[in-house]
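PROTEIN–LIGAND DATA SHEET

This sheet pairs a single protein chain with one bound small molecule, DLZ, given as SMILES. Inputs appear in the order they were entered. The predicted three-dimensional arrangement of chain and ligand is reported afterwards as a token string under its own label.
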Amino acid sequence: MKIGIADTNFARYDMARAAIKELKRGCSAEIVRYTVPGVKDLPVAAKILIEERGCDLVMALGMPGPKPIDKTCAHEASTGLIMAQLMTNTHIIEVFIHEDEAESEKELATLAERRTREHAQNVIKLLYYPERLTREAGTGQREGFEDAGRVGY
Ligand SMILES: Cc1nc2c(=O)[nH]c(=O)nc-2n(C[C@H](O)[C@H](O)[C@H](O)CO)c1C
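PREDICTION REPORTED AS:
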């Protein structure tokens, strides 16, 4: 199994480091890292990782800034990542930490570490233990924050 990590130097936290640590803790997949300037460059990086570097799945890690233009960039990047998934029939797990989700730099770092690690755990489940994801269906999982939990029970 080969997992691609596409990340950016725009991000204010080394999300790839967190992802790689968590992936290495939970599986033996080969990891290929590809760093680009910003989130809008992630779709082609992910596509290259899949088509040219043979990755079975890619994590796309990015940090949109707080300005309206950053939000637009993030939306465009998301659309590109969805297109790349459809073009390659391969999962690209988008892990975006919006800078304004946190109230301090410390909280931003904690959120980035936690969300990235929790999505890396999702990646391991998707590739190796899909039945575990099915068992979690309907349980209100949230990455980076407390889970929302079930309703109606
Ligand atoms: C305005 C802007 N905002 C962000 C952002 O919030 N987060 C991010 O990762 N990258 C941003 N970029 C850079 C673009 O994603 C891209 O790297 C450049 O337009 C070069 O293709 C831009 C240009």
